[in-house]
Amino acid sequence: MTGLYNRLALREDFPNYSKQEVGVAMIDLDDFKRFNDNYGHAYGDLVLTRLGRYLQKDWMNEHLRCYRYGGDEILIIAYGLEDGDFVKKLQIFQAEYAKLNQQLKEPATLSIGYATGAVADEEELRKMIQLADNYLYQAKRQGKNQVVGAEKK
Length: 153
Known about the structure:
The chain has helices spanning 7-17, 32-39, 41-58, 85-100, 122-141, and strands at 20-29, 64-70, 73-79, 110-119, 147-151. By secondary structure, the chain is of the alpha+beta class.
């Protein structure tokens, strides 16, 4: 539905990210259940599909891949970026997505949690994904529609 990679593709891609500096972000549509409850699941699917298409068209490249992680959660993994570029990209993405969705019945916003740093192996990448997920929930607790995370030095 979203056109993004799935969890199977993520497992297959894990070795490609080992021994690299990566940026990991978990993205979640704020109050996604509201879209399904107020307008039906077809409308919720439309909102999710728009997000997937936007990521596919304007963000994915050879250094940045997007995976549907579950429900309305999207995982982004990037490598080969300069220090600070990943966070700037996430902030720009969040702002542009909010503008893109102004014409919806209810504007859709995103919360994003991220972590960056070197990963030696698949286990460290899994831990970084979990850390990004923890930051995502922190963004939700702090009021949603924001980018929260940490960059390893």
